[in-house]
Amino acid sequence: MKPKERIIKAVRHEDVDRVPVYHRYLGGKTAAKLEGIFEATGHDLEIRLGNDGLFIMIGMDGEWFHRIIPAGSYWTSEWGVKFQSKSRLTASLEELDKQEGGRQEITRTKELTSLALRENPLKKREDLNTYVFPDPNRPERMTELKEAIKKYGSDYAIMADLSACLFEAALYYLRGTVFFTDLYDDKDWCLKLLDLLADYYIELGRNAIREGADIIRIGDDIGMQTGMLIPPELWREVVKPPMKRMIAAYKKENSDILVKFYARGNYEPILADLIEVGVDIAEALEHKDTGIDPFEINKKYGDKIAFIGGLDAQRLLPSGSPQEIRNETKRLIRAYAPGGGYIFMSSPYILGEVPVENVWAMIKASEDLGTYPIS
Amino acid sequence: MVDMKELSQNVEKGQPQKVVELVKESLDVGISAKDVLAKGLMPGLIELGERFGRNEAYIPEVMLAARAMNAGMDLLKPILTESGVEPVGKCLIGTVQDDMHDIGKNIVAMLFEGAGFQVVDLGTDVSPERFVEAIKAEKPDIVGLSALLSTTMGSQEDTIMAMEEAGVREQTKVIIGGAPVTQGYAEKIKADGFAPNAAAAVEKAKELMGT
Which residues contact B186 (CB under 8 A, 6 or more apart)? Predict the structure, then answer.
């Protein structure tokens, strides 16, 4: 069974040989060590480690995520978002080049976590009248995706990651925390902003589908460990309609396209809505602080949607013991995988400071325990 | 007679116009500014803060309540200053370096103000050096360091270390707060205290000052 087929069939709850795996390595020391061991980098490394699919970031997050910005300096994104690299490193890039691991390792380990957002482009609500959205059809946006599809697309699932899409894009990138009160002060304005974002992402997503992406990832952080950031009914009023329009456009472009939704935390109050608007794969709800039971969640929703992830990347994977990681992998597979509809991963990625033996424990556990039939 | 409970409820519901109206009415009928603050405005924000802590309220609701309380405070502040009441103490507050989050910090600042403290708010992304300079200039009784992210809570420690180096650590009490912060972390970085929520921060500050 080809990896791509394994992913697609698993999402559709059809028979597969084993639980598919879809990890994403963020970089840093962990990736650097694995690169050394396998003599492979990037997607080649992910495939060597057993991935059945690959992520390609083409949305707003992708703009800055892997960008190298010298410490202390400012950079304004195409969306007009001003960032500052606030690394505690004081060395210049030229000096970093001379150090062990070179510029790449250091910038990936240190600067990824310290790029601070300094200015949102929509300082006043009126600024939206003159704000010019970037062009979703700029050919360069598809370059990385095209290359990945050409090289890996026949065998591996390719996920075009559009994050951050709607609420998160407005709150974090374009407007800032005042967007929370905008939702109460001027709901129409919020609807207009999210509609314009949906227009952008409809174009971008369609382009990715035309290039041959298998999965569209809509990332839109709306959850915290303890629950939703805004009341669910407000989400239904403001965020759900543009999201529904996006997903309908993707499925119209290609009825086989799979749509994945990502949000961190506990967003169970809107899970039924996501199923209703056509999400095929949902990020497993984080349950470390909320007491959410993956068995219960799967019982409630598992026949209507597939789940991905669930292994705690923040605490368990970097600081747990290999045995604890194995136990949790087992628990997740037992909760979500019977009857299909589960893709295993460490949600939402593997951080840069994870002991390599913990990565092994996770990979080994999903290999050992993820073979069907699963009891 | 204006009902203080109604005032609290309007703070809680985030109704600034109604709050302003009720504060004016209360003052007109002779209720003291101090009582309007303590019995009307504060309980509303504290109640909502507690509901938020129990996951029964959402972030925007807390922001709206804080805004409503602020609208009421704008009317009370000149009267409170004029009446020459001695502040309970002086609190210097800020979100630490690299962290731009200020919702929680602003609420803590407001509750300190409401409890009778003089508050100096340094804003967000405040470097250890700026904290040290401000401590030298303002001589606060309490320094509040806020951090929302696990990636920025290290700046709380950096700030305390910078205070030690500058020889100002012993002049003041340091309390820390924010989502990732715990009592254990507070002890580790040698803060004087930790508060799990905004109302507790004020209580902790009073306790540390021995008032």
Answer: B175, B176, B192, B193, B194
- Cα–Cα distance for residue pair A199/B93, rounded to 1 Å: 42
What is the ipTM metric for this complex? 0.84
Chain A nearest-CA distance from B209, in A, is: 33
The pTM of the full predicted model, rounded to 2 decimals, is: 0.89
Nearest CA in chain A to B152: A114
Task: Give the residue on A whose Cα is nearest the Cα of B13.
Answer: A184
Number of C-beta neighbours around residue B211 at 10 A: 10
The dihedral of CA A142, A147, A153, A156: what is its sign? negative
CA-wise closest residue to A220 among A259, A248, A184: A259
pLDDT tens string A89-110: 434 444 444 544 443 433 444 4
Subunit contact B64:A181, Cβ cutoff 8 A: yes
Cross-chain Cβ contact B55/A227 below 8 Å: yes
Q: What is the pLDDT of residue A104?
A: 42
C-beta contacts of A329-334 below 8 A and 24+ residues apart: A329/A362, A329/A365, A329/A366, A329/A369, A330/A365, A330/A369, A331/A294, A332/A284, A332/A294, A333/A19, A333/A366, A333/A369, A333/A370, A333/A374, A334/A295, A334/A374, A334/A375
B165: helix, strand or coil = helix
Which of B54, B70, B96, B98 would best serve as a mutation to test chain A binding (most A beta carbons within 10 A)?
B98
Residue identified by tokens 């990824």 is: A112
What are the b/e assignments for B157-179, b being 16+ CB within 10 Å? bbbbebbeeeebbeebbbbbbbb
Q: Do A229 and B58 touch (CB under 8 A)?
A: yes
Would you call A229 and B67 a contact, using CB atoms and an 8 Å cutoff? no
CB count within 10 Å of CB A48 equals 15
Amino acid of residue B173:
K
Q: Do B97 and A177 touch (CB under 8 A)?
A: no
Least confident residue range of A60-74, B111-125, B176-190: A60-74
Most confident of the following: A84-93, A236-245, A289-298: A236-245
Nearest-CB residue to B58 (from A86, A177, A230)? A230
**Helix runs in chain B, H state only:** 4-12, 16-28, 33-35, 42-53, 59-82, 103-114, 128-138, 154-165, 183-188, 198-209
